[in-house]
Amino acid sequence: MGRKAKMRFDYFPMDVDIFQDLKIRKLIKRQGGKAITVYILLLCYIYKNGYYMKWDSDLPFICSEQTGFEEAYVREVINVCLQLGLFSKSLYDKDGILTSRGIQERYQRICQLTRRTSTVSEYSLIDDDDAEDIPQEPTTTKRENVPTPQPPFQAIASPVPTEKPTRKTRKSTKKEEPAAPAKQPAASSPSSTLDEYINELDKDDIWLEQIQFLHGMNKDSLRNELKKFRSECIANGKTQHESVNDVKQHFNSWLRIIINKKNNESIKPANDKRKGHLLSADGEKEKDYGGTF
């Protein structure tokens, strides 16, 4: 089941010569410049609903609340609009509908330009002959029967360029020289890039202070660890790093492993000394608590 066609507009166009229209000039002449505000507000209500709106006894109050004008003044403006033909007086008297032929023609034109399926059917003021005069967008079916013109350059045979015989003989007799081999870039030392990163870290006092605070080491010890880290990277073949940040992460992880390994080695002998509670099989050996008690 197809979706219901959208009737309302989110916005509508307005002619730049609206104040030159004779009916608008008469409306302003009779009711003042404020009357155009009421008229445009009614147009917004109409296009928000589609192409017409039904009269409601609360409409003057709503317009008064929106514009700040008195309800009596709003009623007078609507009556003048009906008298001038800005709204259809016959439809208003018969069905209480506010619309006009111009509003419906503009609505139908916008629907055709935006390829909407909505049409003016109910309370229509547009004759069938007038509806045919409304310009429509050209469709693809009309363009299919139009033959595509051939480009002019296809009908004209392009002349075949002729070369001088002397040039031909020169080209044929000339030997092609072999292309020179591309020069290979000189291979850099495996540790050249790593040394640059290490020197940069050695001079980065801010980074050294952060590592010093993180691992509880002074700067001299950290610089010595940097040298050990360089030697181990070269020994393990890890000389290529993407950036200085990559070296920082690698060094930080490496240093954490080294510190944890040292801490484990310092704790292990102490644990071995506390094994005095284990009794020997013959009971001859004395317990050794390592002087911890």
UniProtKB/TrEMBL annotation:
<protein>
    <submittedName>
        <fullName>DUF4373 domain-containing protein</fullName>
    </submittedName>
</protein>
<dbReference type="Pfam" id="PF14297">
    <property type="entry name" value="Lin1244_N"/>
</dbReference>
<keyword id="KW-0472">Membrane</keyword>
<feature type="domain" description="Lin1244/Lin1753-like N-terminal">
    <location>
        <begin position="11"/>
        <end position="103"/>
    </location>
</feature>
<dbReference type="Pfam" id="PF25200">
    <property type="entry name" value="DUF7833"/>
</dbReference>
<feature type="compositionally biased region" description="Basic and acidic residues">
    <location>
        <begin position="282"/>
        <end position="293"/>
    </location>
</feature>
<feature type="region of interest" description="Disordered">
    <location>
        <begin position="267"/>
        <end position="293"/>
    </location>
</feature>
<keyword id="KW-0812">Transmembrane</keyword>
<keyword id="KW-1133">Transmembrane helix</keyword>
<feature type="transmembrane region" description="Helical">
    <location>
        <begin position="35"/>
        <end position="53"/>
    </location>
</feature>
<feature type="compositionally biased region" description="Low complexity">
    <location>
        <begin position="179"/>
        <end position="193"/>
    </location>
</feature>
<dbReference type="InterPro" id="IPR057155">
    <property type="entry name" value="DUF7833"/>
</dbReference>
<dbReference type="InterPro" id="IPR025400">
    <property type="entry name" value="Lin1244/Lin1753-like_N"/>
</dbReference>
<feature type="compositionally biased region" description="Acidic residues">
    <location>
        <begin position="125"/>
        <end position="135"/>
    </location>
</feature>
<feature type="region of interest" description="Disordered">
    <location>
        <begin position="122"/>
        <end position="193"/>
    </location>
</feature>
<feature type="domain" description="DUF7833">
    <location>
        <begin position="198"/>
        <end position="257"/>
    </location>
</feature>
